[in-house]
Design goal:
This protein is of the alpha+beta class. It has seven helices and 13 strands. It binds zinc ion (ZN).
Length: 356
């Protein structure tokens, strides 16, 4: 990614304020002079409101934070043993261009949830409407190529904001914006809608309708401090992203260790055994259902449940094996593995629910 970005940069440009020459990227739509901080729309006017989220960390602080987080996160996942073989590289600071979109949000949702009433299951209507003032931060780059950048953007509300001054950037590169204000507003709506739909879907069986009206009050251009640290473990290189605004790790990679592989492998074998037992007992449960010769169809639920259980256990076994083969895992600030649920088609909780 870094090399293609370089290839796209166009000829030298001269700052309108300090006359220093510097290159502009072909996709840049808002640029900042790295010498004096003059910020303008490419081919247009100066951007009057240009803010900065203060960086609260030195390179030494970042190293310390990474070490603390690695100890904590490895303890929860791959095992603390990795700490003995870790060599942390020099932290690198970059200023990421963002828009903070502040809006009055009117939200409406309509959905349904299954509820058991006695023997029958009925649908319960789930409807809600509320109005709140909220911020949505949007990355002002075309591609979110930097490691952990989405997680980073989500934490920015907690930082301290000031007027942009080039001295506050500590000589770290200030990235230019590749999207304009109007794109940012559109993206803010899209991102918020997508996130809230996901959130609502977790709480109900079916979401039929979700609508979001954003009455945008302001859309400020703000640079935010993003730190990236690479560390070595045995022969591999792994990354950790830290927010300079909050001083916290937002996402990190951990090497997959033998201990981790072994645990997943046993989990997978366990699931295969469950699957095998379920599938083997299927003919017996069908036979039993035939013998029962019951008038109600309910007896047939038993072979169906057995079949679902067998197939589900098999899929989980395959998903667990896939994780054993991975080289690294991604872990968030709380030490939880990312996409724990996403790469499994369903969780053990779902299976339990299917059976009961
Ligand atoms: Zn300048």
């Amino acid at each position: 990614m870094e090399s293609t970005e370089k290839a796209k940069s166009i000829a030298q440009f001269r700052c309108q304020q300090c006359n220093a020459p510097y290159p502009l990227g072909a996709d840049d739509v808002i640029a900042t002079c790295p010498y004096c901080g003059y910020t303008f729309e490419v081919g247009g006017e100066e951007v009057k409101t240009h803010l900065i989220l203060k960086n609260a960390l030195s390179a030494k602080d970042v190293e310390k934070e990474v070490k603390t987080w690695l100890t904590f996160a490895s303890d929860k996942t791959v095992g603390r043993g990795i700490m003995k073989h870790i060599k942390i590289g020099t932290p690198i600071l970059q200023w990421m261009p963002t828009f903070k979109v502040d809006a009055d949000c009117i939200k409406y949702h309509l959905g349904g949830d299954k509820v058991k009433r006695g023997n029958e299951t009925i649908w319960k209507k789930m409807e809600g409407k509320d109005q709140t003032r909220e911020n949505e931060w949007v990355l002002a780059r075309r591609y979110a190529a930097s490691f952990g950048i989405q997680e980073f953007i989500q934490t920015l509300d907690d930082g301290e904001i000031a007027e942009f001054e080039i001295d506050l950037t500590q000589n770290a590169p200030v990235l230019n914006a590749e999207i304009v204000t109007n794109d940012a507003k559109r993206r803010a709506h899209l991102l918020k809608t997508r996130r809230e739909r996901e959130e609502l879907k977790k709480n109900m069986e079916n979401l039929f309708d979700y609508r979001l009206d954003m009455d945008i009050k302001s859309c400020d251009y703000i640079h935010a401090p993003y730190w990236l640290v690479r560390y070595n473990y045995r022969n591999g290189t792994f990354r950790v992203a830290i927010s300079g605004a909050t001083g916290k790790v937002v996402l990190g990679e951990l090497p997959v260790t033998k201990r981790y592989r072994l645990l997943r492998w046993f989990g997978s074998v366990g699931m295969l055994i469950v699957s095998a037992i379920a599938i083997q007992s299927l003919p017996y449960s069908i036979f039993f259902a035939l013998l029962a010769n019951s008038d109600s169809g309910e007896i047939w639920l038993i072979p169906i449940v057995v079949l679902v259980l067998g197939v589900a256990a098999f899929i989980i076994a395959v998903a667990l094996v896939a994780r054993v083969l991975k080289y690294e895992i991604q872990v968030n600030a709380e030490g939880e593995e990312r996409s724990e649920d996403e790469d499994l088609p369903f969780t053990l909780e779902d299976v339990k629910e299917m059976i009961t």
